[in-house]
From TrEMBL:
Organism from which the protein derives: Bionectria ochroleuca
Highest taxon in the source lineage: Eukaryota
Residues of the SET domain: 14-236
Classification lineage: Eukaryota, Fungi, Dikarya, Ascomycota, Pezizomycotina
Protein name: Suppressor of anucleate metulae protein B
InterPro entries in the cross-refs: Rubisco_LSMT_subst-bd, Rubisco_LSMT_subst-bd_sf, SET_dom, SET_dom_sf, SETD3_SETD6_MTase, Znf_MYND
Record keywords, A-Z: Metal-binding, Methyltransferase, S-adenosyl-L-methionine, Transferase, Zinc, Zinc-finger
Domain MYND-type, chain residue ranges per copy: 417-457
Tagged with keyword Iron-sulfur: no
Pfam families on file: Rubis-subs-bind, SET, zf-MYND
């Protein structure tokens, strides 16, 4: 592969090498020191896998172009990989084949888990999404069979385009491709040989760049490296569930862990059309998926959605005024109590739906029931992360409910000083040492707010 890339104009390969690392497996090793910001690798456009390159292929391209409606980009890339791999004695594909030969022969994405391994995280959104994904991938393969493989048996022999082959190629695309937004909201998905050997580190800032004018891909050093260090890139701030679904690994104690809460309302609900309009005005969809995170377990948008969902006719005007002035707060004690009660109960039910409850999972992991790095261990990490987030969300809903019952002021948004309203962009906020929830821009605001905050502080602390 190196010879092909160098011949095609790749830059930087002589300063980098492939090596095995204990934590991440195969990755890229620096052969000399690099300074942060230095360009360390460029892979030229003519070696990169894109949908455009697949369409330009003299044999595959016309067949792909004949498919209506067009195939998805990930299907095009997956077919391109399988097609190149299938052209065993065709010298026109020999160079790209050197890259295909270096792709891992197996993947550890959750889609490949046994039922027993996946059951460890039953109740999590990963479990649900993986189950859906398996169905979707199966359906997509059947469509390819009828739309392409059966019609062009000479190009797509089924022993090289089996369901297993399709799943392998699709997983290669998910776990190794990069997405870039280019002009006019368009985006490009690509897979770049050698650059796709770079592993992810949470602290590696965005350091891969696509040049739309040349089509080249470059990697910059995200920090200083010494010779022998592993070079990393950043795949994004991704929760373990998504990491396992699309990349096949997890990061223990991942700060990006989340639970994607889906909020929806029956179209038969009273005042549905008016509420639909209010959600839209408030920047929400009638089916809203809102990530709950450890940092912000109950985002304001969840409360906003539910306040609208539970409005009665006499409260429509108040809500419209709030949206117009962007001054969101509770509509009434009754509305607020209803939504918080509902949240507390539904999150409790979600937690009750996990196959292995949090406390038991923590004991199992501490006792080494799941061997670190195994599929079941990875599923356990996802379940752990999601349940921790849900627990924090329930605690916050309960505390808020208690404060409504006590007649306290509602919680201020978590990115604002509770006293003066300065937000986290304007000042560094620190949390109250006792309840660890309400935040201030400085000591002065905290002291000035003490009297007002005392009762809520007590109920928040008690629910922790
Ligand atoms: C773009 S490839 C990187 C190269 C890959 N390690 C290889 O040998 O081909 C992405 C895959 O690398 C692995 N990976 C990347 N970052 C990782 C990390 N921080 N910890 C564990 N595995 C990682 C995962 O298997 C992932 O699907």
């Amino acid at each position: 592969m190196d010879a092909w890339l160098k011949k095609s104009g790749a830059v930087g390969l002589s300063d980098l090498d492939l090596a095995d690392f204990p934590e991440t497996g195969r990755g890229v090793k620096a052969q000399r020191p690099f300074k942060a910001g230095e360009r360390i690798l460029t892979i030229p456009a003519n070696c990169i896998w894109t949908a455009k390159a697949a369409y330009a292929d003299p044999i595959l391209g016309p067949v792909l172009q004949s498919v209506q409606p067009p195939l998805s980009v990930e299907d095009i890339l997956a077919l391109y990989i399988l097609f190149v791999r299938s052209r065993v004695d065709d010298p026109a594909y020999a160079e790209r084949q050197t890259h295909v030969a270096m792709l891992p022969s197996e993947h550890t994405l959750s889609m490949f888990f046994t039922d027993e391994e996946l059951r460890v995280c039953a109740g999590s959104s990963l479990y649900t999404l993986t189950t859906h994904l398996r169905g979707r991938v199966g359906d997509d393969y059947k469509k390819l069979l009828t739309r392409l493989f059966m019609r062009h048996r000479d190009l797509f022999p089924l022993d090289k385009f089996s369901f297993q082959d399709y799943k392998w190629a699709l997983s290669s695309v998910w776990s190794r491709s990069m997405d870039f937004t280019i002009a006019k909201g368009n985006s490009v998905r690509l897979m770049a040989p050698f650059a796709d050997m770079l592993n992810h580190a949470s602290d590696a800032k965005q350091c891969h760049a696509y040049d739309p004018s040349t089509g080249d891909l470059s990697i910059l050093a995200c920090r200083d490296y010494q010779a022998g260090d592993q070079v990393f890139i950043h795949y994004g701030n991704i929760a373990n569930g998504r990491l396992l679904r699309l990349y096949g690994f997890v990061l223990p104690d991942n700060p990006n862990d989340n639970y994607e809460l889906v909020l929806q309302t029956s179209s038969m609900a009273p005042l549905y059309e008016q509420k639909q309009r209010l959600w839209k005005l408030a920047g929400l969809d009638e089916v809203s998926t809102i990530p709950l995170t450890l940092k912000n377990p109950l985002p304001e948008s969840v409360l906003r959605y539910l306040r609208i969902q539970r409005l009665d006719e006499s409260e429509l005007g108040t809500m419209t005024m709030q949206i117009a002035t962007e001054s969101y707060k509770k509509i009434s004690d009754e509305n607020e109590s209803q939504i918080l009660q509902f949240l507390s109960e539904s999150i409790g039910a979600l937690l009750g739906g996990f196959e292995v409850p949090l406390e038991k999972l923590e004991v199992q992991l501490a006792e080494g029931l799941y061997s670190p790095g195994s599929n079941a261990w990875a599923a356990a990490q996802v379940s752990l992360g999601e349940q921790r987030v849900l627990k924090a969300a329930k605690a916050k809903a309960d505390a808020l409910l208690a404060s409504v019952a006590d007649g306290d002021a509602p919680l201020p948004p978590s990115n604002q000083c509770a006293k003066c309203g300065k937000d986290s962009k304007a000042a560094r906020l620190m949390a109250c040492g006792k309840c660890k929830t309400v935040k201030y821009c400085g000591r002065e605001c905290q002291v000035a707010h003490f009297k007002e905050h005392k009762a809520l502080c007590r109920s928040l602390s008690a629910s922790k």
